[in-house]
Design brief:
single chain, alpha+beta, Jelly Rolls, 2 domains, six-stranded mixed beta sheet, 18 strands, about 25% helix, elongated
Length: about 475
């Protein structure tokens, strides 16, 4: 049975193929996440065939590098093997990876000048893969992917270089024959749904086809490897995790953390803020990564790993809720703080975030009647003069905060059902955030909370709950 995580398809896609798939999106930083690890004891098998003539890259044959990758239905693997390359297969082993490639057929990559030697690209890729392992497993402390019972020829993690299908830069798959169970690389924890997997990378990384030049190709290779290896690691915690945004948002987060300020992950923020008031389950899964950036910026990087550790037992937002509770935090409070961070663009490199798009506007006195989806939030612009009283009524699941911005500083007021007064003349801009996130069990379904926001003249202005710097805020008017 195929489980495909594809662009703009939040529901699981089921087919009769005996595979599980996770498709991926990448970003475009320049350097590697850290110096590539020195591989120990690489072994090159006896070459099976001479190199095939290589053709010049076709500049018109380009993948959609600004879009997401798509699931690519591969033929079911034969027992004990993942993929059949079109030509005679060669392998190259590092300390932790086995790279599969061929020099003939439609999967071929350019040979070394001496066809008996390992191609330069394979050696380059080996360093990138080992560097990603050192970063995610070594530095960040995630559990290594489980061994795969000899699929691909041994228990090293298998990476295939092959055809350029459907604009995919890379993806991670598994097969039904690799049953879910415990990951032996986490001896203190018993997983129930850990699963081995393998990685596929497009041959264009080796040939240059589909890229404008070496710089673009190098950037996408670096980030694809980090993104895809994070998926391999995720499979080692919970191969059965259902919400697609949990997979892709965390993998996108890993790219941005590995390559701060150089990734194209910021381009997806527009997708998110355009639909922020809808249920999270309806969002483009790649665009949700700012929530995990918020968690690591506001708290620490380990919290994101702790969320995935909870995914061993919980699904989606329930895993987030469990990780927050273990730290004495709550989903409802963190989600409203996240909405505030998105409004103020209060992130590392937040200047590159697309500003929030207002859901509505109130010219005082007046009101709006709206609804906000589960794990969604909306920004309502308030245009008023002098003291005004704001009140929120409706579904108790909707929580609200008033943000007054002036001169690079923001005053925050938590808005209760009793209402609250502020002096609009004190601010250059007045915005009300309405969020929908609860601390009860469940929460992965798409439900909406109805609310009415009213602005009335007068009132005795309250003191702000918090005052924060807001140098990155951009007007919503």
């Amino acid at each position: 049975m195929l489980m495909a995580h594809a662009r703009l398809r939040p529901a699981l896609v089921l087919t009769a193929l005996a595979l599980s798939a996770l498709a991926c999106q990448t970003i475009a930083p320049q350097p590697t996440p850290r110096p590539a690890a020195t591989t120990t004891g690489p072994r090159e098998p006896t070459p099976t065939s001479p190199a095939a003539p290589t053709t010049s890259p076709d500049p018109t044959d380009r993948p959609n590098l600004t879009g997401r990758d798509h699931s690519v239905a591969q033929p079911a693997a034969s027992a004990g093997a993942y993929l059949e390359l079109s030509g005679d297969e060669r392998v190259y082993d590092t300390a932790r990876f086995r790279i599969h490639y061929t020099l003939t057929g439609e999967d071929s990559i350019p040979a070394a000048p001496d066809s008996d030697d390992t191609p330069d690209f394979v050696i380059e890729l080996a360093g990138q893969l080992e560097g990603a392992w050192d970063l995610i497993v070594g530095d960040w402390g995630w559990v290594a992917p489980p061994p795969d019972q000899g699929w691909g020829g041994n228990d090293l993690y298998d990476v295939y270089i092959g055809r350029d299908d459907d604009d995919a830069l890379g993806y991670v798959w598994t097969v039904d024959e690799l049953l879910m169970g415990d990951n032996p690389n986490s001896p203190d924890v018993i997983e129930r749904q850990a699963q081995g997997s393998y990685m596929h990378l497009r041959r264009g990384f080796a040939t240059g086809v589909g890229f404008s030049g070496d710089q673009e190709r190098d950037a996408y290779l670096h980030t694809t490897v980090v993104h895809e290896f994070m998926h391999a690691v995720q499979y080692g915690y919970d191969g059965g995790e259902r919400p697609e945004w949990m997979w892709e948002a965390v993998a996108m987060w890993s790219e941005g953390l590995a390559f701060p300020g150089e990734s194209d992950d910021y381009s997806y923020v527009l997708d998110y803020v355009s639909e922020a008031g809808n249920c999270l389950s309806q969002a483009d899964p790649y665009s949700v990564w700012p929530f995990f950036r918020y968690l690591s910026d506001r708290h620490d990087r380990d919290l994101v790993r702790e969320v995935w550790e909870q995914a061993r037992d919980y699904e989606g937002i329930n895993a987030v809720r469990a990780a927050l509770r273990a730290r004495g935090l709550s989903v409802s409070a963190e989600w409203l703080d996240f909405a505030q961070a998105m409004l103020l663009r209060d992130f590392a490199n937040g200047d590159d975030f697309h500003p929030l798009i207002p859901a509505d506007r109130i010219d005082a006195p007046g009101s709006v009647q709206r609804d906000v989806g589960q794990l969604g939030f909306e920004a309502i612009v308030v245009v008023a003069e002098g003291p005004v009283t704001l009140s929120l009524s409706g579904d108790a699941a909707a929580t609200s905060r008033i943000i007054g911005i002036r001169g690079g500083q923001a005053d925050a007021f938590d808005l209760s059902t009793d209402g609250l007064a502020v002096d609009a003349d004190d601010y250059d801009e007045l915005v009300v955030l309405v969020a929908h996130a609860t601390d009860q069990s469940g929460g992965n379904a798409c439900i909406s909370a109805d609310y009415r926001l009213r602005v009335s003249p007068g009132g005795s202005p309250a003191q702000p709950t918090d005052i924060v710097d807001a140098p990155k805020f951009t007007t919503l008017r």
